[in-house]
């Protein structure tokens, strides 16, 4: 086969939505972590995170979370959170990569805390989507120092302008402009490219 070549990439970030995870620190403040290894199945979210992150430590002891989804216009604030950790005892590897300890992630990023409905960590007011939940399971991955967190979604809150007209519980994908990460760089979505046969299924049938 000569249409492809074998490569050995160090990372496999082929493009996923960016999320900002809110978790509860020991002192009751909320830590924020930008991340993009996330997917959803039904009312379950699955997150891939580093085991030594403050977020993983928080979720082990205090299993409540908000998955905040930033829109593309929040890229500056999200990028300010890059290379920061809430873990004062960060690993040598992270220190070598230039990470700094930041206790107040909201202040550092210029974001605003907003009370959540069903969990203790605060939500990010500027993010148009807040997905609240509790940890249902924490799996150690085959690769060391990585965990997969299974989150049972307890509430979903959105800015009203994202809703599909006439459908209070649905999102209009033409109005939702997610921030996407591909190989460590930030992107937005383009326009719809093709009619969708899957979209002929009524969303309510997934309940
Ligand atoms: C856009 C973006 C995406 C990231 N995606 C992930 C990810 O999917 N999983 C992960 O473990 N770290 C990811 N990181 C790195 C974490 O943000 C980083 O480890 C951070 O220090 C964790 O914060 P904490 O220690 O305060 O929890 C990402 C960073 C950025 C800026």
From TrEMBL:
Residues 14-152 form the Flavin reductase like domain. Belongs to the flavoredoxin family. InterPro entries: Flavin_Rdtase-like_dom, Flavoredoxin, Split_barrel_FMN-bd. Pfam families: Flavin_Reduct. One of its GO terms (molecular function) is FMN binding. SUPFAM superfamilies: FMN-binding split barrel. This is Flavin reductase (DIM6/NTAB) family NADH-FMN oxidoreductase RutF. Keywords: Flavoprotein. Its cofactor is FMN. It comes from the Bacteria. The keyword Phosphoprotein does not apply.
């Amino acid at each position: 086969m000569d249409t492809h070549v074998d490569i050995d990439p160090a990372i496999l970030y082929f493009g996923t939505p960016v999320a900002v995870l809110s978790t509860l620190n020991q002192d009751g403040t909320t830590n924020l972590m930008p991340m993009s290894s996330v997917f959803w199945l039904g009312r379950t979210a699955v997150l891939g995170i580093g085991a030594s992150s403050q977020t993983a430590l928080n979720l082990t002891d205090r299993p409540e979370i908000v998955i905040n989804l930033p829109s593309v216009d929040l890229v500056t604030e999200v990028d300010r959170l890059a290379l920061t950790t809430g873990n004062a005892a960060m690993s040598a590897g992270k220190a070598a990569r230039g990470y700094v300890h930041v206790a107040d992630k909201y202040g550092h990023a210029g974001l605003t805390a907003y009370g959540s409905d069903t969990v203790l960590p605060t939500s990010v007011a500027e993010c148009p989507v807040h997905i609240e939940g509790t940890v249902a399971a924490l799996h150690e991955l085959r690769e060391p120092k990585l965990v997969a967190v299974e989150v049972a979604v307890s509430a979903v809150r959105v800015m009203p302008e994202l809703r599909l007209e006439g459908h209070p519980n649905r999102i209009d994908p033409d109005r939702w402009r997610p921030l996407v990460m591909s190989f460590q760089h930030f992107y937005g979505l383009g326009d719809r490219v093709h009619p969708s046969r899957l979209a002929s299924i009524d969303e309510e049938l997934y309940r």
